[in-house]
Structures are given as C-alpha cells and as structure tokens.
Amino acid sequence: MGAPKEGILSEEPLYDPKILQRLDFSKAPTKFSPPVSAARPGDGLRVRPLCRADYNRGFLQLLSQLTSVGEVSEEQFLKRFDAMQACPNTYYVTVIEDTTNGQVIGSSTLVVEQKFIHGCAVRGRLEDVVVNNTYRGKQLGKLIIMTVTLLAEELNCYKMTLDCKDKLVPFYSSLGYTLEQGNSNYMMIRFDKAPS
Amino acid sequence: MGAPKEGILSEEPLYDPKILQRLDFSKAPTKFSPPVSAARPGDGLRVRPLCRADYNRGFLQLLSQLTSVGEVSEEQFLKRFDAMQACPNTYYVTVIEDTTNGQVIGSSTLVVEQKFIHGCAVRGRLEDVVVNNTYRGKQLGKLIIMTVTLLAEELNCYKMTLDCKDKLVPFYSSLGYTLEQGNSNYMMIRFDKAPS
C-alpha cells in the first residue's frame, strides 16, 4: 500500500505551483520573442516547482553544467529537499521540464530572506541559474530567470539581487538587473572545506 | 499564571547560544587588540543570539542607524522573530548587549542558505551589520562581524559572502573578505514597493 503514497509524495511540488500561473510577464523588464511566460512557456515545455521525482529526471546532472555537484545520493537529495520544504516561504527552486522526454532542462532558484528592516520586509535572491547546453538559444535562460524574478515581486520582495561573474553582467543587464552606482560589491571568504 | 511563561519565552534565544562559546577567534583572519571573542567580548558586554525581549532593548532603534526600519509594532516584531525561528538552521541574528544598561548596541546576521550544489552544501551570508554610533572605535564592528563569520564556518558553510558599498570595501578587506577577481558583481532589481 506504500507505493501510491510514495508516488504522490515524489510529485509533490516544493511550493504551490499556482503562483507561477499568475505571474504577469507583460511586466517583465525584458521582451520575449515569441512571447512566452511561466504559464505558457512554449510547446513541449513546462515551468514548475522542483519535486522529489526530479532526482530521476536529470536535475543534478543539469546543475553539474553550472558547477560541481559531486556524488549526491537519492537519500541526500531527498533530505535536502525536505530541509528546504521545512523552511516556510523560503526556497523556490523552479525548473523547466521538457515534457517530450520528461527531463529537467533548466532551473533557477529564488531564495527569500526575512528581515526586520524596512518594516519587516522580505528580499529575494537569484541563485543557481542553469539551462541545459543543448537547449541554449531558445530564450530559456531569460524565461527561468524572469520567472523567479517576477515570483519575488509577487511574494512582495522589495528587491531581487544576484551575484555574478563579469562576463554575465551584460546578460543580466539586458534582463533589468543593474550594478547600482557605489553599491555593487560582492565579497567573500572561502573556508577550508570550500569546494571549487 | 501566564507571566512566568511569557518571561521565559521572551528571553528564549533565536538559536542555541552554546555555539557562540566555542568559536575559535584565534582562527579569525583579523587580529583584535586587546584580544576579544564572542565568549569574552570585554567588560560589560555580552554577545548572544537575538531574543524577543530585545524589542524593548533598542534593537530596532539600533537597526535604524543602518537603514530605514519604519514603524514596527511589537506584534510585527514577534511575528517576524517567530517566522525566522520556524526556519530551522537558517537565521542567526546576533547581538552585542551592553550589560551595564541592558541595551542592544550591535548586531549582525548570518543567514544560511541550503544548496543542492557542492554535495548539498550550505553557504552563509552576512547581513545587516550595525554598531551603535556612540560605541564606535571599540572594535565592536569587527567583533560582531567576525562572530557570525566564524559561526558560518562552524556551521560548515563553504563560503561566507556579503554585498556592500564602495566605501566599506577596505574595512571588509581588513577582515579577510575579498573581491574575487572577475566574480565580484552584485546586481539588483528594486521593485515598486521598494523602501529607500
């Protein structure tokens, strides 16, 4: 009797998918040609929250096109998924699925941070953006970034921020992100255990 | 019968304070003179997690020296505190208390973000650093920043990052933070509801 239950659990979205349907892409600070949105991403594509079953749909292999992922067992993946889900209104890992082959071919994450400043405001962060390199040139990067950006606005974030390498500045600029004069420094300390 | 319970609740720390006692300041990438640590911050000072009672100890007034806070009622503050506490292993709002007058005179926050990349790693972010301007020049900024930085390492973050204005780059550089070559861009979109 456990199988159906597990089946439901494995498709359970990390967050409520309805919110993606109501994002207004006409407000996006970039144009899509042809026009697409999270609700209508194009034939054979679906934009939706991450779910547990994505472990078997190439989600981690996709991330490995972005940076090192290492050996992550299904158990580890599920534990991390559960830990994200245990933080209310925080993690919005969003994927593009190619419905013709059931593979995850794009992903980006909105992380919402709660503040005391600005009247107990919330802010958003854009993290871990990747599109399968065999699907490049189809505005899917723009689509997945704009999806979580509009999602941040929908969730009442007062700003959405990102950190990036020099070579990506023109791309993010084309999507409405700015290097704010005098306030665009990203600094870090890497600890000994740091992966590359 | 409610009062004692409320009293205990109001002093309940946002996170386990024991972890602050074991931070090894000899590992800090900056020197303190005289030597201080989170465990021994100096006479009349205490470094500890935020608690609910800090609403009445000047915590928000302190934050207003950093940026706009607005009118935040005790109810709003407690709701935000509870929301942070509801996210396991995420929010580490840390304060310095002047024990001679019971006021919160410094604060900084470590926000831990969970990832799938790097073997389901966690990273840290330094947020909302402020020291009461009448207590400047006592290395309290260094102390509170290094406290949450070492805390990030203790919690197995692979890196700790921050974003800052140009004028603060030399200060953070002196604490071991670096502008990584080709990877130090901080970009943003401010939404209409954005506070200044």
Automatic annotation (TrEMBL), chains A, B:
Chemical reaction(s) catalysed: D-glucosamine 6-phosphate + acetyl-CoA = N-acetyl-D-glucosamine 6-phosphate + CoA + H(+)
InterPro entries in alphabetical order: Acyl_CoA_acyltransferase, GNAT_dom, GNPNAT1-like
GO biological process, one term: UDP-N-acetylglucosamine biosynthetic process
Pfam families: Acetyltransf_1
Keyword Phosphoprotein tagged: no
Keyword Acyltransferase attributed: yes
UniProtKB keywords: Acyltransferase, Transferase
N-acetyltransferase domain location: 45-196
GO molecular function annotation: glucosamine 6-phosphate N-acetyltransferase activity
CDD domains to which the protein is assigned, alphabetical: NAT_SF
Pathway as given in its UniProt record: Nucleotide-sugar biosynthesis; UDP-N-acetyl-alpha-D-glucosamine biosynthesis; N-acetyl-alpha-D-glucosamine 1-phosphate from alpha-D-glucosamine 6-phosphate (route I): step 1/2
EC number: 2.3.1.4
Protein family: Belongs to the acetyltransferase family. GNA1 subfamily.
Name of the protein described by the UniProt record: Glucosamine 6-phosphate N-acetyltransferase
Organism: Thrips palmi (Melon thrips)
